[in-house]
């Protein structure tokens, strides 16, 4: 990650072992816009921030990245005042915010979202990864199963990429007609195990409250962006990433079939056949059980935001301004128009940039 002259990137290790990346311009008394985002959005937002502050000199951007579940939890449970939330799983917004009230009020944290982009899962690696010269779309799960190969995956309790990665592994069993891909590559490498239960028309994966690795086969990290350094330094050989991040960080990657990469909405009936259930959710009382579905990103402005006016301006810049151009050029295209679930609740300034979901 390059250091820009007007932005300082600080890496913080939070109490919950979640890495946050903060952009802190020097204090100037300017209007501050605080954005919490999924880790997979940090790369394009870093570049966008430089342009935005150059063209909006009275605004300072503070951008912090986490796993998507943790992004929302910072507002709804830790009571942080954030102006814009941007998550890798749009469906977390209604689940975690629509029925959760701001402390000491009856006001919900949000009652709308904008579904602004998509992505898909790839298997990323480097030239130094073991057996990188052999791996292909037909044998990748056999390569990963070799004893000396190490895998990196985001934590499914915290990060959307985490639960999507284990859904991808389970879907691979259907696609390749090979049982035990999930168990061999992931589930059986922890104590207690991540149990995969086959039902007549679906599979349910149970995520235990705690995960203790039985060996060094699989490395879990709290955010998708924490996996990239593991791969770059050779600590792991392969990891599941979003395709945008694999391209942004100039990694080698294997494209996975549409039936398992969670990137094709025409495959949702297949994706829906896998569900992830959390045996205990340590961050609150809301059940965050996840069903396999196409990857969509979402954003909203929390009702307790401090700088709503600038938040709306920034979202317009992202959806139709130079921010969209920059995102598009960095392999993370923005939908035009974007989509919303509740058009009547969208702020008036943003209505022209969205349409109701079909």
Could you name the key traits of this structure?
five-stranded mixed sheet, D-Maltodextrin-Binding Protein, domain 2, alpha/beta, disordered N terminus, 2 domains, 358 residues
Textual characterization of the structure:
The protein starts with 8 loop residues before the first strand and ends with a strand. The N terminus is likely disordered. 28% of the residues lie in helices and 26% in strands. The protein has 358 residues and is α/β, with parallel strands linked by helices. A hairpin with a 4-residue loop joins strand 10 and strand 11. Helix 1 runs antiparallel to helix 12. It is built from twelve helices and 20 strands. The protein has two domains: 171 residues, D-Maltodextrin-Binding Protein, domain 2 (3-Layer(aba) Sandwich), CATH 3.40.190.10; 167 residues, D-Maltodextrin-Binding Protein, domain 2, CATH 3.40.190. Strands 4-3-5-18-6-19-20 form a seven-stranded mixed beta sheet. A five-stranded mixed beta sheet has the order 13-8-14-7-15, sandwiched between helices. Strands 10-11-16-17 form a four-stranded mixed beta sheet, covered by helices on one side.
Beta fraction of the residues? 25-35%
Number of DSSP E strands = 20
Regarding quaternary structure, what we see is single chain
Amount of helix:
25-40%
Number of helices: 12
Per CATH, which architecture of the largest domain? Answer: 3-Layer(aba) Sandwich
The Rg value, from CA coordinates, equals 20 Å
Supply the helix-strand structural class: alpha/beta
